[in-house]
Design brief:
It is a single chain. The protein is mainly beta. It has a domain at 624-661 and 702-738. Helices cover 8% and strands 48% of the residues. It has eleven helices and 46 strands. The strands form eight sheets. The chain has a 22-stranded antiparallel beta barrel. A five-stranded antiparallel sheet has the order 13-12-11-19-18. The protein has a four-stranded mixed sheet with strand order 1-3-4-2. A hairpin with a 3-residue loop joins strand 28 (576-589) and strand 29 (593-606). The model is unreliable at 1-41 (pLDDT under 50).
Length: 903
């Protein structure tokens, strides 16, 4: 087979690890050695493939050594340690979420839908959860930290993550690993294996890899500081952050409220008697600090459990000396079954309720409660599973085929086709059948026997023979028969399908006085479909509370054509080299029609040491299938009606759903920066890149209250707001429509910094590396108001983002021993910009910064590699948080380790 030229197409803003040098340095090394490498490395910063080319778009290359630091259980969680990423979706941020345990890549904190994730350069369904990618065959990850839609297509607004697999692996890899938190939870157990071999005298190659992971989740919120905190409103309207904030209006035995929902501070004991609610140090309205009450969040896990299995196989064959065909196949299964959170019904209890004992009536009368009252209940005693229980199985199957080759010594081509199907079977148990529950709660005594009131009525047309009385007074008193009548499981089986195909050709078009002009051209096709295979019968009629699963069906296709050109304008040896780069892509969507994306940029290298770069791009994100076709979902709540002098409207329905008339989001990105690698200090590299991203026509769904406010602002004389608002004949507010719309604008700008140095030490290598990102602003205009989320770091705020994040690593490695010392800095800020009823910000709003220290150790014993790792060595606690926080560690100190065998 012909020798392949080393091609590294990267304008690396950050250091290139694991033996992959910057393009210019690699090219110089080749010239000195007088020979070409056998390995083809094409970094994702550009579609053009040419030795020595530095793309203007900043690109980070993360090798296996760096991805292994911290011993994270998935690629996405390893990427979250890089400052440009935000841990938006992880097992620790989806503890009460139907996307539980999923892990996605989120560049710049603009949400994962604005980061395009690829596998070996093509789209794949597994990008929705990077648990699907076996880590033991990942060779490197390319991270393009800038707009890249012209090169790679829709979704690359914040950048591109391209996971590159080790396609040429030979031999056997075996591994076992485990981990546990310092609190004795978070146990995980894993195993992996991989095998690769050549055949047909080296013309063919086959590899297969598998992984298994069983993560038990973390549940101890009591031992972890600040994990049961939240906002508390004092009597004077002042908001304050406090630990152990609990409800006065909700209780696991039932909190007794007036018909206006004011608490009496009385609760039902488990046996149905009435007693005082043990209040905490400070109480006002619906909340108390401490005491004997409950909060919903104390039922949630710290990190959700999951079990996963992965299998990946690849075969390739050189059909000629210049053409290789290949086929990939993968299988991934994620599953879990765990307590979600309790339901919280508010029920009216009549004075003649069948389960209200004489003792309880007397106790209520002594407290001044003589008529009907409202019961605020935390349902944590519904059958053997106790409360809402979520269970799912996500299965992903994917097959890709393709051909790669060269034409002469100046042109390369590639063609591929990928088909993937992600099947999601999910269920939420112990939900209320709304109508049945209401009938069962309203029970009376007939002949000394509890009977549903509807069956005690003499009118036979107004009864339900199946109704079984339900005892909510106290805890643990719900019978199996009542549970079977009033509660049910809701669920759905859905399938996401992706078919993607592409062809590309790149090479040298002609040469000028400054060098060859390179071009890449190609076409991509994509078909996406979402199908609801089945839903439970209750969801079909929207009969369940809190969640009836919606049936969503729809799809779209897109045809795309792109071209990229690189033109050298100046090349003076050892003095200056100037190149300009441009790309354009036309995309034709079956839903919204045609749209252009483009980019233009240039690089200037001075005296081989200094690289300056600039790029400006127009990028897009097409709407997702959910945003297009989500079936109507219903919410019920109270709203302030601005058309009726801000009167309170009770029990207003708000409907959300897909919108087939959505247009793509449009983004403009500017990147300016450069890197410096002085000849007088071999191994030293410094870089800085400024970025500014502005996204228009952002797709959002507003709250019902915000829809009303926006309607009144724009159409003060139309109280129906063009059909978005529905009213009774008397003008009473009935419903608000809040479907997905192109309303918002996002804008962020910041600075990426890096310094790295490598030097020999003894028989090994000592490396230093520091990465940092500073976010100057993150402006979120949701169509109603604009706020700067940079420096808002409370986990309850959408897009909360520290202004500074940084990672510094000191690594030593030789043939037998290796160690890492890593520092992760997360800036502080404020918890929230929320203003209290007194017009003042939160009293103790400041959150301090954290610097986490991680230690890793590797020792080779014979053919075995033993390794251990401790993350968050000093067990720093998270800031006060009501639910979770994607910016800070919530697990505490975590120990992990294992053994590897390669032969």
């Amino acid at each position: 087979m012909q020798s392949k030229q080393m091609m590294l197409c990267a304008g690396t803003a950050l250091s290139v690890l694991a033996g992959v040098a910057p393009a210019w340095a690699q090219a110089a090394g080749e010239q000195e050695a007088g020979q070409a490498s056998e390995e083809l490395i094409i970094v994702t910063g550009s579609r053009i493939q040419r030795s020595g080319f530095d793309a203007p778009t900043p690109t980070t290359v993360l090798g296996v050594e760096e991805l292994a630091q911290g011993n994270r259980p998935s690629i996405a969680q390893a990427l979250n340690d890089v400052p440009q990423f935000r841990a938006t979706s992880t097992p620790a941020t989806t503890t009460g979420n139907t996307n539980a345990a999923a892990s996605q890549a989120d560049l710049r904190g603009l949400t994962s839908v604005r980061t395009l994730t690829l596998l070996n350069g093509h789209r794949f369904t597994g990008s929705a959860d990077l648990n699907s990618v076996p880590q033991n065959v990942v060779k490197r990850v390319d991270v393009v930290t800038g707009g890249a839609s012209a090169a790679w297509g829709s979704g690359a607004v914040a950048g591109v993550v391209n996971i590159i697999l080790d396609d040429e692996m030979t031999g056997v890899k075996l591994g076992l690993n485990t981990g546990v938190s310092t609190y004795g939870d978070g146990n995980r157990y894993g195993a992996d294996a991989a095998w690769g071999t050549n055949f047909a005298d080296g013309r063919g190659h086959f590899m297969i890899a598998g992984e298994y992971m069983d993560d038990k989740g973390a549940w101890d919120r009591d031992s972890r500081k600040h994990m049961k905190a939240g906002l508390f409103q004092r009597a004077d309207g002042q908001l304050v952050l406090a630990d152990d904030v609990k409800y006065t209006i909700l209780n696991r035995g039932g909190s007794i409220l007036s018909l206006t929902a004011a608490p009496y501070n009385l609760v039902f004991n488990p046996d149905g008697s009435v007693g005082p609610l043990p209040l905490g140090s400070e109480t006002f309205g619906q909340q108390t600090i401490g005491g004997g009450g409950q909060s919903l969040y104390e039922y949630l896990s710290v990190s959700t459990p999951y079990e996963r299995s992965n299998v990946f196989a690849r075969a390739s064959y050189d059909i000629t000396d210049t053409a290789k065909i290949w086929i990939d196949g993968s299988y991934n299964r994620m599953s879990a079954d765990f307590g979600f959170f309790p339901d919280t019904p508010i029920a009216v209890i009549m004075p003649d309720n069948a389960f209200l004992t004489d003792t309880a009536r007397a106790q209520l009368a002594d407290a001044g409660v003589t008529g009907p009252f409202v019961l605020g209940r935390i349902l944590d005693d519904v059958g053997p599973d106790r409360f809402l229980n979520y269970r799912y199985t996500r299965r992903n199957l994917e097959v890709a085929v393709g051909i790669d080759g060269t034409i002469g010594d100046k042109w390369t081509y590639r063609a591929y086709y990928d088909h993937g199907e992600l099947k999601n079977d999910q269920w939420l148990d112990n939900q209320r059948i709304t109508a049945n529950f209401n009938r069962a709660v309203d029970s009376v005594l007939v002949g000394g026997t509890p009977v549903c009131r509807v069956n005690a009525d003499a009118d036979p047309a107004n009864n339900d023979p199946a109704c079984v009385p339900l005892n909510l007074l106290g805890n643990g008193n719900i019978t199996d028969a009542a549970r079977a009548y009033a509660f049910a499981s809701g669920g759905a089986v859905t399938t996401t399908k992706l078919d993607a195909a592409g062809v590309s050709l790149s090479g040298e078009l002609f040469s000028t006085w400054a060098g060859p002009v390179d071009v890449a051209v190609g076409s991509d096709w994509r078909w996406e479909e979402f199908v609801t295979n089945s839903t439970d019968p209750y969801s079909v009629t929207r009969a369940l509370t809190p969640l009836s699963f919606s049936a969503t069906n729809g799809g779209f296709n897109v045809k795309e054509f792109f071209v990229e050109v690189n033109v050298p304008l100046l090349d003076v040896a050892d003095t200056a080299r100037l190149e300009v780069n441009g790309a354009a892509r036309y995309s034709d969507y079956s839903t919204s029609g045609g749209i252009w994306t483009w980019k233009t940029g240039s690089t200037l290298r001075l005296v081989n040491d200094l690289l300056l770069r600039a790029v400006y791009s127009r990028d897009i994100r097409s709407p997702s299938i959910n945003e297009y076709y989500l079936a109507r979902a219903t919410n019920l709540g109270n709203m302030i009606d601005p058309y009726r002098s801000n009167a309170l409207a009770l029990n207003v329905y708000s409907y959300t759903g897909g919108n087939p008339d959505l247009d793509p989001e449009i983004s403009h990105t500017l990147t300016l920066g450069g890197s410096y690698s002085p000849n007088f200090a071999p191994g030293l590299r410094l870089s800085a890149d400024f970025y500014k991203i502005k996204i228009d026509d952002v797709i959002v769904t507003l709250t019902g209250q915000d829809v009303l406010g926006l309607c009144y602002q724009q159409f003060p004389d139309d109280d129906l707001c063009g059909g978005l608002v529905e009213r009774n004949n008397d003008g009473t507010l009935l419903s608000v429509l809040r479907t997905f719309r192109n309303l918002a604008k996002y804008q962020t700008k910041g600075l990426d910094l890096e310094a790295s140095y490598q030097m020999p030490l003894g028989s090994g290598t000592l490396s230093f590396r520091a990465l940092a990102t500073h976010v100057f602003e993150l402006l979120i205009d949701d169509g109603v108001r604009t706020t700067d989320r940079a420096g808002i770091v409370g986990g309850d705020t959408l897009f909360s983002t520290p202004k500074w994040r940084g990672t510094g690593t000191i690594t030593y490695q030789d043939e037998r021993f290796g160690t890492d010392l890593r520092f992760r800095y997360v800036d502080g800020g404020i918890y929230s910009d929320q203003i209290g009823p007194n017009g003042q910000p939160i009293l103790n709003n400041d959150i301090s910064s954290r610097t986490y220290v991680d230690v890793g150790l590797r020792v080779k014993v014979g053919e075995f590699m033993l390794y251990g790792n401790v993350n968050n060595v000093f067990n720093l606690s998270s800031p006060r948080t009501q639910y979770t926080n994607p910016n800070y560690e919530v697990m505490g100190r975590y120990f992990s380790g294992g053994v590897k065998l390669n032969f």
